[in-house]
Fold each of these.
Amino acid sequence: MSVYRRGEVWWYKFRFNGQVIRESADTGSKTVAREAERVRRRELEEGLNGIRRQRARLFSLAAREWLDLKRSVLSARSVQIELANLKHLGPHFDRKLIGDIEAADISRYQQRRLAESAAAKTINLEVGTLRAILRKKRLWANVQPDVKMLSAREDVGRAISQDEESRLLAECAGSRSRSLYPAVTVALATGMRYSEIRLLRWKQVELEKHSLTVGDSKTEAGTGRPIPLNDRAYYVLDMWASHFPNREPEHYVFPTEKCGASGNAFTPCVYATDPTTPIGDWKEAWEAAKERA
């Protein structure tokens, strides 16, 4: 067995069953080329002995092929979720042949992720991605009987009382993040998702009709749905719009802003606003307001 370089790409060469096998490993890494040679040799040995009919694949290659096929039917958000799942699965499975993955390997993965403080629901989503890849290769049925999903809490929470809502809004209004109050008011009035509010543009808001239209959403049914505004949401958005007299339809309702201290601790000094970029998040301001409330 030997590996050698041609330009920027490594190749491997070995003799098998009286023939010289010389193939490109399609990589710039010598280590990966050696592993590719090992996998190819094993694949030929198994084919010669009738162990497997389909060509062996490393999990990393099978995962890439599966995701390439799914991109055309998945939303951009779903693709990002699958990429995040594969990022966690990779260190544990990438160097394994997909046909060698057993239920015990999946169980060990679950335990390792729990030790890393990952939530059971998150781990189940990651195993769901692994399951989809194995199903594509007709291999999931071999391990399914011995794979158990983790027990995950499905708490739906509780509705806050009117008094709690009033205290929460009061603390949001006193936040240094001046957009927190209108954003939370819209959330309470419409039930919109976090990303739907954060990425809301002025062209989607029709104040004269007391309504707004949702942009891209997590689901196809959610995208483009009209939502009526109650009086409180209308007045808050109308007040918020007065801060942006030169707003354009494509501008974000909640743009990124930089704030500094002012003479009044309850009045943040906004010294930089970029209406073409949405706010990053409200996490710090939101957590602080909840704690105070």
Note: The CA atoms of residues 213 and 226 lie 4 Å apart.
Amino acid sequence: MSVKLNPKVIAIVGPTASGKTSLSIELAKQFNGEVISADSRQVYHGMDLGTGKVTTDEMQGIPHHLIDVVEPTTVYTGADFKRDAEVALKDIVARGKLPIIAGGTFFYLELLRGSMSVAPVPPDTELRAMLETKSTAELQRQLVATDITRSAKIDINNRRRLIRAIEIIHTLGMIPPVEPTTSPYDWLTIGIDIPANILAERIHERIIQRIDQGMIEEVATLHQEGVTWEQLDSFGLEYRYISRHLQGTMSKETMIEELSTKTRQFAKRQRTWLKRDKSIIWLHFPVTLESVQLTLQEFLTN
């Protein structure tokens, strides 16, 4: 009796600016695939240059999922991503296509693979509205007071994650431990191993390019449309430092320097996080179709 094989899924990981997006598109073209974005910021409308969102031209006709699905004034959680990504996975597989996951929010990927779990706590709109009135420092103090262990494991400058953690503790009394589950899919995770000096150059060049393309204006527009400075601060480095520049507390030159430095440090933390995962197959930058083709063919035919 033949054994039913789980559907195949490919994930592409690597530090920011390592070429995950372009590789995912090349693989999708070669292997009849569609891309699911695993990025906590690209789900938001209007956050394009600051998140490195793939453009329609760059997609080259490849369908992309979980891009531009909510407004930036909305809180979109890991649980939301897991739900929406599972729907997209089933849809892609049902149509005989290969799902390819690409994006820099590795926590999202781990949720999808089942190596991490989310707390079964629905949004509490009243609590969230109350917490939004607090400063980031007040939220940090509240989380430390209620769960000091959890506070050491999240980005304490990310208001959305602070609020979500407090919301879970408010409901359950604690952050529940991780409970891994078995994925219904067969996963291959490819890591892009890029030298630090090359990555640093790419990070700086990308920042300058995006500023030239209008990244500062993008942040200003988001604020004009109702996204507060504190919300922008929680959306990550680009929005944090450009917001400070727009508020007049930082010159453009200092902003670019700080953003480059902090992004390099962020990329280093991403590497550390990823190196924990021994299932990742690391390939040297630049990862070309030729260099990855044999690995993929073996995976897809076994």
Note: The mean pLDDT is 89.
Amino acid sequence: MPNSLHASLERIWLIDSSIFVFRAWFIRNPLPKDTAGNPVNAVHGFLRFVYHLLNEQKPQQIAFAFDTSLQSSARKAIYPDYKANRSSAPDELKYQFKLCRDFLDALGLVQTASTAHEADDLIGTWATQQRTAERQIIIISGDKDLAQLLKAEDIWWDYNRRGALHAGGIKDSFGVWPEQIADQLAIAGDKADNIPGVPGVGMSTAAKLLKRFGSLDNILENLEQIGSMQVLGAKRLQQLVTQHQATIRLARQLTTINCQVPEVPNDLSRKAKDLDKLQELCTLLKLSTEQYELWARV
């Protein structure tokens, strides 16, 4: 168990599910198929992650957030080109996403998605909703954007890829504190989500600005002081930030996680398994009797 997991606190596990499906989607050799001949590589990979998590950590309060089509999302309304660089998922991947969610349902685990809000926002809402002094929020994701949610004893963990990080670990890894991540991304932009930033300003320079001024608001209120910073090209940096203030403000609306999504489940406790459904899914996925029994016990 990582040192950053506190045995004395009740743990709330919040899973950014889609990234673990996508990682498995790109592993296509060998390409397992279900009984109907459909590829299920992403399902198998996602389920390996879920099984290890449940078996090793034995979470009692856990929820899985998924992304779905977001053509009418709040961020699209603000900036129509948001994530315009991403093509929609092919039908065979959509099929696998549904199987992943069905399997979680059969296990009695909370899972949800929204056509208006992203998984980040669902997780942010859960974190806000569930956080108490007696609880530790554990966010499982490979996306550093979600690290902005960390408070006190919370941790961000790219499970099986890197260690669990608390706020200090986020600062060491990304150069800014959790509460500065949305500002850092707004300044530098985020190519993965097609979010504009200040041209020529990367994450490292954005971190230096935030180290000096603390927040994006403070940067914009003290533009004339940027030119006196002890960084290469400080005068040019001042000009760039000054010229692109509107872009930065727009970008921060996109990089900031919405923690007030309505109607997310508030009971994250594990429920009884639907063993008939679990058996049906294991058969469809060509899982062995022994594998079904492992899932039935986990």
Note: The CA atoms of residues 167 and 178 lie 6 Å apart.
